[in-house]
Specification:
Layout: H1 2-21, H2 29-39, E1 43-47, E2 52-59, E3 62-69, E4 74-79, H3 83-93
Antiparallel strand pairs: 1-2, 2-3, 3-4
C-alpha cells in the first residue's frame, strides 16, 4: 500500500512542478530538496498533519514550496509561492468566488 502512495506522490509532484514551476522533470531536484529537508537546510513553514510538513527550499537559486511526507520520505506536492494568499482568499470568500 505504501508503495502505491509513493508512486501517486511522485506522479502528482511531477505534474505540479511542471504546472507551477515549469520544471519538466523532478528527478534532479527532488533528491536535492529531500536531502536539504533531512539536513534541516530548508525553511520549515508549518506542520499540516502528523506526517506532512510544509517547507520552503532553495535549489539552484530557485525557491520551491513543497509538502513533505515523513512516512513515505518523499515529496507530496509543489505549491505555488502565493498558496497562502489563495487559501486566505478562499477562507474569506467561502465557497463563492470573489
Amino acid at each position: 500500500m505504501q508503495r502505491m502512495n509513493i508512486r501517486r506522490h511522485i506522479i502528482h509532484c511531477e505534474r505540479r512542478a511542471f504546472e507551477r514551476y515549469d520544471e519538466l522533470s523532478i528527478k534532479d531536484i527532488a533528491p536535492a530538496i529531500i536531502s536539504k529537508i533531512h539536513r534541516g537546510e530548508g525553511e520549515f513553514v508549518k506542520r499540516q498533519s502528523n506526517s506532512k510538513t510544509l517547507w520552503r527550499v532553495t535549489v539552484n537559486q530557485k525557491s520551491y514550496k513543497v509538502v513533505y511526507d515523513k512516512n513515505t520520505k518523499c515529496l507530496v506536492t509543489f505549491l505555488p509561492d502565493d498558496a497562502s494568499k489563495s487559501r486566505e482568499r478562499a477562507e474569506t470568500c467561502g465557497e463563492f468566488a470573489c
